[in-house]
Design brief:
The complex is a heterotrimer of chains A (about 450), B (about 190) and C (about 350). Chain B is α/β, with parallel strands linked by helices and about 190 residues long. Chain B has four helices and eight strands; from the N terminus they run βαβαββαβββαβ. Helix content of chain B is about 25%, strand content about 30%. A five-stranded parallel beta sheet of chain C has the order 7-6-5-8-9. A four-stranded parallel beta sheet of chain C has the order 2-1-3-4, sandwiched between helices.
Chain lengths: ~450, ~190, ~350
Amino acid sequence: MKLLIANGYVIDPTQGINGGRDVLIEDGRVVALSKSGDGAHEGAEVFDATGLIVAPGFIDLHTHLREPGQEYKETIASGAAAAVAGGFTSVCAMPNTDPVNDNAAVTSFIVEQSEGIKLANVFPVGAITKGSRGEELAEMGEMKRAGIVAVTDDGRAVPSPGLMRRALEYARGFDLTVMDHCEDKSLAAGGVMHEGEWSLRLGLRGSPALAEESDAARDCALAELTGARVHLAHVSTRGAIEAVRRAKERGAQVSCEVAPHHFTLTDAACEGYDTNTKMNPPLRSREHLDVILEAIADGTIDAIATDHAPHHADEKALEFDHAPFGITGLETAVGLALDRLVHTGKISLERLVELFSVNPARIFRLEGRGTLRAGAWGDVTILDPDLNWTFDAARSKSKSRNTPFDGWTLRGAAVATIVAGRVVFTRDEVKAARSGGV
Amino acid sequence: MEFVEKARIMDGMRINRALARLASEIVEENHGAGHLYLVGIQRRGVPLANRLADKIADLEGERPPVGVVDITLYRDDLSTVGANPIVNRTDLPIDVEGRNVLLIDDVLYTGRTIRAALDQLIDFGRPRRVQLAVLIDRGKEHRELPIQADFVGKFVPTKKSEIIKVMLDDIDGEEAVAIVERPPAEES
Amino acid sequence: MKATLKQKNLLGIRGMSAGEITHVLDTAENFREISEREIKKVPTLRGRTVINLFFEPSTRTRTSFEIAGKRLSADVINISSSSSSVTKGETLLDTARNLEAMSPDIIIIRHPSSGAPHQLARVCRASIVNAGDGAHEHPTQALLDALTIRQHKGGFERLRVAILGDILHSRVARSNAHLLTTLGATVALAGPGTLAPPEFASLVEGGSLRVERRIEDAVADADVVMVLRIQRERQDKAFLPSLREYAVHFGLTRKRLSLARPDVIVLHPGPMNRGIEIASDVADGSRSLILDQVANGLAVRMAVLYLLGGGAATTTPNTNPVSQVKSENESATTQAEQLKFAVTAGGSEGSSS
């Protein structure tokens, strides 16, 4: 099966390509890039990408698919559908399912489920500790054989520095990246939003930035000590970013990701007590958001990851104190990044592709992804950076609607998603414009 | 609210003469000032009640007690007025029980204010009798309830589209009674 | 002339103007005499349904609202739940929807979670009165405190107020801080270091709110001293070593009170822990207006019910979505725009391979 993506503007930082190219994909793999117009091929389906950006498929390092165990919030199928609708060709599924993905059986289940669905690639991430309880190591070797690409106890940190050290050393042996959710629970002290001016005003328990910063510093130091690969999930604070920067300067293998809500909203959004502004780590004050914007531009932050966390409406309808943490994010991430980072002149489109594709593939060692080299997987994300669109949560492909971005108008979107050479998603606007094309 | 004043029908001197006549009628009808209790209805009934009390004191040598009531909380139209009217002071220093209460207001129009004042008085006790004195009576055809004044300063027949504006020094800085045209979109 | 509260709800003092606050106080002042009549009732809210929805035990405030509603001839219904949605099984919003189906005019809610009244306001057409939500606000308490202060001090301009105790967890402190500073007073807060964080001063802009480390520095020269209740559980969660230590170092004793102005008045929202946050002789002393506060509480609550409930609530609930935050640099020409031109011009490159 052949697919030719013609007349598009290709951005592939791994090959230093930034210009008009045609992309030929055959049997799920990239065959070659050729000069625009030269790529016509016998028997190939043609996707006309005139006026659009063609990038290696976007990869979300941090998605909660909720299956097995909480299928009322999301399933692998609905999550994958939301992913491709948001322009993601691959998602990495977090292990805090029920049961927790801390053994090969659960890993295999997830792999089988996702293969049947044939939308986005789903890469399971295994737990660091059994049940993510932070006590005993989980069977990383077995899980790796079954298909995990990294390990994390996301939802919580590994509280004991000593155990975290063992986890890093052990994971290193299997060449697995350890992703950590940095949060010292004793400092967080049950906080439901950022501790600052707004938590005081709203009378809500606050979690200080230090709760994240202290764990981040610990993890960076352990990365240096053990030589393991450490990836900090959803960084939201100045201190965590500074720790990453220093660690990188000293040659430690540390990387980090940021979620779109942390470069878009501050804790002021919590006024009104909308539980769609409650997530962990929480929305921070302006000062932290500014540091994040700088770090996205200067390379300290390696990736944008959604931390897509679907919750049922009934659960989010509880009091702010009791509602679960988290918002969805797969369908708004790319739009927010284009609108808030590219169109404000903070980063280039090339940098955007690094953040969504090149770096994620590198961080989790996903072979043949994040690039359009010959032989790479035919995963492609097509962008229209100038499309003005309004996000309507009611029409989301996710089962859940817990988002603060409902009704937002954004400039820029992923308009088509191609996985292993098959077009698995096209936006309505693009479908209408391309009669007879795909 | 912008009014268009059409005519001034009383000035300070005429108001004063009307009050003097009312005071005489009141003591004649009540055979003296004995059990009288003057109750002014907020807002302009209050200065009027005090002036009448002074004039009765001149005539009879004793000044009847004066109280004030704000009838806002007894209105029958609160749910239709939208924003709530301001509540002023109610102060009845003497018990109404067994007294000849004389309610005093500036203008008698539909009678609903007086109905509210009667309900309020009854909540305070059982007067021996209640009478009504007003400076201006706008005429029987406007009445929406069977209420009449016992003592009237001046009858002024008016149209529904008109308002009688009583101005007193204590509240408005001048003394006059004027007929004004109701601005078109106003609600009563 | 008519005047009213601009909102259909009373969720907090923050956001009310000095004019609105004063209007409530003036109205409350005129409601006081009703409680001195023999027939303590006016027909104003006849036929209106007022629901007291209390998720925290509170006989005092609930009774105050109940009597206030009844003296206005409203039908008052008390619903208490001693636990929150989570343990009870029915969510707050389900409770609210069920009530809404019976068309109440006013719902008074006290809840342990900040923001619960706001959630109700999104769902219910009734006017919502916040009787205390978590650590956020307790507006009628601040209003009755203000009325009490005004009766004894005449006004608020340049008045010095000290609020002492567990500021961090206190909705009374927050509401009072907003109200008093809005009316022109300066407020000094003080308490143990764990319970009176210096950051609290930023609650109100303009510098009229400050945090002192020592009780003595807050009480010095004060015209009004407000004492907050200290809760035993603060000791359990490592905020305090013991209540005894609190009483010795932070309690309002006669000696500490003598640092204030000679005509200082003392307020306490109640119920008091005698001998802990306030010495018995201070509580019972001539400077203490704790019982006045109760009488004023009734008048204030009647005024609030009147101002919210006299007119039927016809507005639709405010659904309050998180509003879109404007992006900066909206007019910056970016690489993306330049690329677009390049792309449509037939594929000439930027940097080529």
